[in-house]
Amino acid sequence: MNNQTRAQNGESADDSDSDFTNEQLTGNIHKIAIVPPNYTGKPKKGHLIFDACFECGNLGRVDYISDFEYDLFIRPDTCNARFRIWFNFTVENVKQEQRVVFNVVNFSKSKSLYREGMSPLVKSTSRPKWQRIPAKNVFYYRCPEHKRNYVMSFVFCFDVEDDVYQFAYSFPYSYTKLQNYLQILDNRSLDYYDRELLALSVQQRRLDLVTICDPELKNTSEKKRKLVIITARVHPGETPSSYVCQGLIEFLVSPHPIAKVLRENVIFKIIPMLNPDGVFLGNYRCSLMGFDLNRVWQDPSPWAHPELFAAKAQVLSLDKDPSMDLDFFIDIHAHSTMMNGFMYGNIYEDPNRYERQAIFPKLLCSNADDFSMSNTSFNRDAVKAGTGRRTLGGSLDENCNCYTLEVSFFSYQPAGFNHPIPYTEEEYMKLGRNLARTFLDFYKLQNYIVFNPSAAIMPKLNNSAGFSSYRSNNTLTNGNGNNPLLGNNLNNSTNGKKRSPTTMSQQPLKPISSSSMSNHNGNSSSSMSNGSQNSNAATNENKPKFFIDNSLE
């Protein structure tokens, strides 16, 4: 680490002056060229130009340390300086084989999955699929030059001069991507799918409510109808929750036989993005006005928290509907310090209710390799009092099971494996599909649905003919997003064991033509592959890849 005084020396890419001080971290940088001290004139090739002024972007400041090292400062959440985790920015004007060290210096949490081998994600214009930077090139440590705060440093080597490179904390999933995806479903005119506007955010973005059920069930008055409510993305930086939610929706509207029988017997109400303003702005945890919306469920304000106000009113109204049996409220999140998928539930005075709520997590564990019962817990911590799980657990009918579903930002470790497997976008969506199929097992156990064979012994959903056909025709893609980055002959090994092809994408690098980097908001295809700390990929001479600095070995 260079010991010179950290001071920003920035010049705008359009030659305008930049007035940027240490305290001004209220906005994202916009096309800032970082040049050496006392340098004048236009930026040269290799004077990196940083940008985070796009949807879901986050980078508040860059300090020049040397030609090979830069300190990066995360912009805090709007109106709330406590939260600094999410980053998402681009770098351009690079030189071929230019090696750099990026230091992210102002994380708001010291405990992190970077200690466990997690690494940032990268893609570029010629390779629009996200990849993890190898963990051997990522370091997480206390830094004396930053008041002994934790710093995450990663080494990277730029290999294509004309590419724009994008780096992110996790797989971006933007408000625009959700709107595009829901529009695709709207255009299919499915009689069992409905989308309605539940409310508008402070900045007038849509709070969508998706309803999935057979029209005959929706209109019947002969029996009480089973109801499941799912919400996601109350914390904007927890992007994996959106992939889980999309996987759930994709499965429920698919022709898969389990999806069909679920639609015929259960009404699903899904709010896929509870905090659209925070998502758009690139916040990690808060709304536009600096509120953690998952702490205001007890008394949401119609002007400060219109999304939560409308969502809570909808849930309570459905709970009071005499024609409905509300069985589940599940709020989907992502976890920054733990592995696997797992659930949080509530503690109740009634022992029968307390025991009953353990059934669904156990069923999910039997269906999903990445779900952990050992990480699942039931509590009533005072600090969680304003969460959806806690508030609604005390407000809804006693037969309703209220959970928080968490999924790791990094990896999961199936039973029998001695190493973690990094999540991909597809793996997150697979958890959503497995969540859906678990509802069938639950209702079979309640003798509400009769269906054979059981969900637990059905073919894997990502291999089933009907579901694969649906996915191939309807998966959201961007530009060249259809082209896989890695292929089947990739020999990923960890501790001498090959990874199962069902747990990770393993495809060779294929040449991909340059595409516009206007898709910073995360609208790329969901099929991809991750690097890991001990993985060594066999290279293919005529296929492009990210140049990784191996001088650290």
From TrEMBL:
One family name in Pfam for this protein: Pepdidase_M14_N
Single Gene Ontology BP annotation: proteolysis
Cofactor(s) essential for the protein: Zn(2+)
Residue ranges with Polar residues bias: 1-11
Compositionally biased region (Low complexity): 475-495, 513-536
Database matches in InterPro entries: Cytosolic_carboxypeptidase, Pepdidase_M14_N, Peptidase_M14
Catalytic center residues: E406 (proton donor/acceptor)
The Peptidase M14 domain, residue ranges: 171-443
Region named Disordered: 1-20, 475-553
MF terms in GO: metallocarboxypeptidase activity; zinc ion binding
SUPFAM superfamilies: Zn-dependent exopeptidases
Similarity comment text for this entry: Belongs to the peptidase M14 family.
Protein's UniProt name: Peptidase M14 domain-containing protein
UniProt organism field: Brachionus calyciflorus
